Amino acid sequence: MTTAPPEISPKPTLLAELAKQLRTRGYAILNSASVCEWASCSIDELNQMKTSWNEMPVDQYLKDGGKYRKRRHSSFKFGNETLNFAPHRAHWQPLTYNALHGGMTRWFEPMPASITALPAWQKLLAVFAKTANQLNAGTQCIEAHQFRIEALEGGIGRPTPEGAHRDGVDLVGVFMVSRRNIKGGETRVFEASGSSGERFTLQEPWSLLLLDDAKVVHETTPIQPLTTSGHRDTLVLTAKQGRFLEP
């Protein structure tokens, strides 16, 4: 196996500086304590969600033929201070944003009520939508993705097989839920119209990377197991004002 680069811890953003960081730099990183303050919930409330990452279905749409990614997907709308389910729908992106899997109508199993009925879930999506409103005000169409990327002995798992990309939305949030027995998984964020960037490894459970999708591109490097197997669990939220991405 190749040697992974040294892990670099991210420099967290002060919650009071969040709006400014998104506006000027295009991304911000919150540690778990700031996430709890931001969402008005406790770490114990967030941890109630973690077991639902077990036994997720395998993503059947990977064009590289891999079986290393497990995934669920649900959609919501937030407007007038109210969060509502959207009817279950396919996930779709244009080729301009996802050169590998764009143009595909991908149906994933919805997220279970064991997550979406929790008070912490309602709080997370509400504050995420309100943060998106600072970029583009209006009804926020939110897509939520549970990911487990697995790495087995002698192999790798790819968190972003499409490479560096934008998602075609207004705001992206990547929550680190857990890392188990892996190396790699370095996150890289670059200016969409420039040359500067930053790399770091999200490790703390419930730390969060927020991205202004118009300003930056992002990717995460492959993971490798430290012994026989390992995995990386994340929750990815996207918000787009007014409408979902549709074919």
Number of domains: 1
**Radius of gyration of CA atoms, rounded to a whole number:** 17 Å
Rounded mean pLDDT score: 94
DSSP helical segment count = 5
Strand content: 25-35%
For the termini, the CA-CA separation is 40 Å
- Structural class from helices and strands? alpha+beta
Order of helices and strands: HEHHEEHHEEEEEEEEE
What strand line-up does the widest sheet have?
Answer: 1-9-5-12-4-2-3
In CATH's first tier, which class applies? Mainly Beta
What do these coordinates show?
- This protein is an alpha+beta fold.
- It has a single domain, classed as Jelly Rolls (Sandwich).
- The protein is about 15% helix and about 35% strand.
- The chain has 5 helices and 12 strands.
- β2 and β3 (about 80-85) form a beta hairpin.
- The longest helix is centred in the middle third of the chain and has 15 residues, at about 120-135.
- It is globular and about 50 Å long.
